[in-house]
Amino acid sequence: LRRRPGMMSLLRSHLHAFVPEDDKFSLWFKYFAASFVEMGSEEDGGCQAQAEEKEAELRAVVDLEKRPLRRQEVQQLGVNLPAMKLLVKLAPNEAIGLFGFEILSKEPSFASRLTEHDMSFKIRELDERKDDQWPLFRRIIAEVEPDRGLRLAIRVLRHSQEEQDLQLLKTAFHQVDRFTRSQTCLRTELGQYNRKLWSKLGRRIQEEVIDPVTCNTNMSPIVSRFDANAMRENRPTRWE
After folding, report:
1. DSSP assignment, residue 69?
2. Residue 78 has pLDDT above 50, yes or no
3. Average pLDDT across the chain, whole number
């Protein structure tokens, strides 16, 4: 019936005429929960057009500026992945916390639509200390801009100490601009946080991650090697 022309207008008129004011929203949200099920995945094609259609239908009924969706309503409407992604747009304060981790697990590229604050404070399930989440973090790092990828790579390497995360750190550090590198002291970020990590990987981080770019930005290899020796002796370095 939802696909019949004029069904929305007919339903709206009947709700207005026969349903008490307090019950209208609960009935509308039941309608939209059923309607959102129809949205297919992006692989099915037409997902964006469907999402825009559903958004327009919902906004025609609810003024989201005056009456934001409530947490219970967001939970009710999050019937599938396309619906969850739409709700992140319509009710980010509630939907990111409710659905963010599930969306990222199924679609890591969605991280590019979220802020660092969203990922760090609203999606509480996302935790680089859990080794079963390291593969997810690696996929997210590949999807975000280099400066965010660098910060995520640092967070993961602190705990994993794995080769592939060292390589992710190297790639991200080399991709960011010179200013970002100058503001990122890897010895502080990694060594002071985890001295065992620095004992294990510090020399490689200096020689493979830091030296190639510092030597290419008006720092001589002799100075870079001096700093590497200072780091191994736990003394301040010139690039700090």
Report:
1. P
2. yes
3. 83
Distance CA 214, CA 180 (A): 13
Residues 111, 104: contact at Cβ < 8 Å?
Answer: yes
What does the alpha-carbon distance between residue 55 and residue 42 come to, in Å, rounded to a whole number? 16
Q: Distance (Å, rounded) from C-alpha 150 to C-alpha 135?
A: 16
Asked whether the beta carbons of 222 and 210 are under 8 A apart, the reply is no
- The closest alpha carbon to 61, from 96, 17, 16, 92, belongs to 16
Structure tokens at 15: 């709700």
- The letter for the amino acid at 235 is R
Q: Which residues contact 100 (CB under 8 A, 6 or more apart)?
A: 88, 114, 118, 119, 122, 123, 126
pLDDT at position 39: 81
**CA torsion angle for 54, 60, 64, 65 (degrees, to 10)?**
140
Please, where are the H alpha helices in 62-219?
71-77, 81-90, 92-106, 116-117, 134-141, 146-160, 163-175, 178-182, 186, 195-204, 211-214
For the stretch 161-203, pLDDT in tens is 999 999 999 999 999 999 999 999 999 999 887 888 999 999 9
pLDDT at 103 (0 to 100): 97
Please compute the mean of the pLDDT values over residues 143-165 and round it to a whole number. Answer: 96
Between CA 86 and CA 36 the distance in angstroms is: 10
Residues contacting 55, CB < 8 A, separation 6+: 86, 89, 90
% of the chain beyond a pLDDT of 90:
60
Find, among 115, 118, 137, 117, the residue nearest to 127 by Cα. 137
